[in-house]
TrEMBL record:
This is isochorismate synthase. SUPFAM superfamilies: ADC synthase. It comes from Aquimarina aggregata. It catalyses: chorismate = isochorismate. It comes from the Bacteria. Belongs to the isochorismate synthase family. The keyword Ribosomal protein does not apply. Its EC number is 5.4.4.2. Keywords: Isomerase. It is an enzyme of class 5 (isomerase). One of its GO terms (molecular function) is isochorismate synthase activity. Residues 99-349 form the Chorismate-utilising enzyme C-terminal domain. Pfam families: Chorismate_bind.
Length: 358
């Protein structure tokens, strides 16, 4: 692992693109080090590499191609068991201006829902904190250890920026003809147990995601089925989760971008109806989400041998520039949302990143 970290440090100092990541629950660290600083914008999925896609698909996704990169992988030291992660602690100071602005945004969202234009909208904000730790890989190691069930990554391109995250949400996994995704929504703090009750608001907001995903996929994925809804632990938070699976054949691979397009952005990060929610977000949020609530991960569709993909929604993430880390957080708004509680949920979500920074 030390060798891989040395190579990544050198790559970063040389201002060359790289990504280093670990899939949920695995103990293998993988990295791709691009040999030049070309910005590869993706036109199709008929390729192999690591995709980094923005929320707004009007901007193109970026690929670190396997073809132009050195790739390494190594075993990780034994991971901290998820049970050992601290429960959520209330230890935060509040920025009153951000709070007022977010509450105003949520109130606007609720109005739009009450007027019938939207059913659900996911509203977010960006919070800046000092980033004084100049050892990037130290922060990345903390993410790996604290969030063993998350997809943990550090991604860099000199023409785009530096991003880190630990996301609990899978967008799409395909392997040997099988397809898997999830509907993840609804949040409460983890306090010592996952045996918790969920309110109607959370159940409804998560059901909207499940229904949307099942409906969208029914025409493109074979034998689609879904699990019971259950509680999923993500660091110091809990979410409601439903697993959705089906079959995908090699002939469907050329249609892969359609599958992505019907799903992304799901109502877990955007809203319903999708187009109205997206317009509302782009107009009202007042900042650029960039790659937050986009997606990222491996695709391997260039050869006939090992066609597979592992893509995750970019949540619980931050971008870093100079001495500032920008932490991105949001939450699903429905007719039953209480603005003050929605604000508190975003504050709790910032802790996923703050836990490794402060
Ligand atoms: C939009 C985010 O979370 C989504 C995923 C899980 C739970 C969510 C919620 O309870 O609102 C969100 O839909 C975020 O973490 O910024």
């Amino acid at each position: 692992m030390k060798d891989v970290f040395t190579k990544i440090n050198k790559q970063y100092q040389d201002k060359l693109p790289f990504v280093v990541y670990r899939k949920p629950g695995e103990d293998i660290l993988k990295c791709l080090l691009q040999k030049n600083d070309v910005l590869h914008q993706m036109d199709s999925y008929d390729t192999s590499g690591f995709v980094f896609a923005p929320f707004d698909n009007k901007s193109k996704s970026i690929l670190i191609p396997v073809k132009n990169s050195e790739h390494y992988q190594c075993a990780l030291a034994k991971l901290v068991a998820p049970e050992n992660i601290d429960s959520f602690r209330e230890n935060r100071t509040v920025n009153d201006l951000s709070k007022q602005e977010h509450i105003k945004l949520v109130n606007n969202g609720i109005q739009e829902i009450k007027s019938g234009i939207l059913k659900k909208v996911v509203l977010s904000r960006k919070e800046e904190v000092d980033f004084t730790n100049n050892n990037l890989l130290d922060v990345f190691s903390k993410l790996l250890n604290k969030y063993p069930n998350a997809f943990v990554y550090c991604w860099y391109h000199p023409k785009v920026g530096l991003w880190l995250g630990a996301t609990p949400e899978t967008l799409v996994e395909t392997k040997e003809g099988s397809f898997h995704t999830m509907a993840l929504a609804g949040t409460q703090p983890y306090i010592d147990t996952i045996d918790v009750q969920w309110g109607d608001k959370e159940k409804e907001e998560q059901a909207m995601v499940t229904d949307f995903v099942l409906k969208q996929l029914s025409s493109v994925i074979k034998n689609i089925s879904s699990s019971e809804r259950y509680t999923h632990k993500a660091g110091t938070l809990l979410h409601l989760r439903t697993d959705i699976q089906g079959g995908i054949s090699n002939e469907m691979i050329p249609q892969f971008h359609n599958i992505i397009n019907v799903l992304h952005p799901t109502p877990a990060v955007c809203g319903l109806p999708k187009d109205n929610a997206k317009s509302f977000i782009l107009k009202e949020e007042g900042y650029d989400r960039k790659y937050y609530t986009g997606f990222l991960g491996e695709i391997s569709f260039a050869s006939n041998e090992e066609m597979q993909s592992n893509l995750y929604v970019n949540l619980r993430c931050m971008s870093i520039s100079e001495n500032k880390a920008s932490i991105y957080v949001g939450g699903g708004i429905t007719k039953d949302s209480i603005p003050e509680l929605e604000w508190e949920e975003t504050v709790r979500k910032t802790e996923t990143m703050k836990n490794v920074l402060l």
